[in-house]
Amino acid sequence: MPVYMNDSQFINKGYQISTDNSLLDFNAIFNYLDGESYWAKGIPPEKLRKAIDNSLCFGVYKDNKMAGFARVISDKATFAYLCDVFILKPYRNIGLSKWLIQTITLHPDLQGLRRFVLATLDAHGLYKQFGFEQITRAERWMEIFTPY
């Protein structure tokens, strides 16, 4: 069962989470994904712009400056894929990643889904707090993987 955080504990400190893409700092997102992430190194900027434009994006801000990001690819009825989740270094270790995942899992457009998936190398503990589990029957899953 998820541990729900009180939004006001962050809002009162100048933080906010928004799905308004016009607020996103593309350069901050690109610099993190291309330069620091293990999953999107080498992503071309035009590919990232298209991905952002076609996803439900969540920006985390501190006093209107980007502190974190995540995006969800979904039909908003049966399936969603959570990806590109990060909190920038100066804003880590204060609970923002938990608040972000809580906000995403409670978003009205992502309720009643049959399947909500993600892939992670090292954050299993974070996602388990919100109901994510290892994929069962992994032998049923297939992929086409084309690195950048």
Automatic annotation (TrEMBL):
- Keywords per UniProt: Transferase
Recall the GO molecular function terms of this protein's record: acyltransferase activity, transferring groups other than amino-acyl groups
Which Pfam families is this protein grouped with? Answer: Acetyltransf_10
Tell me the protein's name: GNAT family N-acetyltransferase
Enumerate the spans annotated as N-acetyltransferase domain: 15-148
Top-level taxonomic group? Bacteria
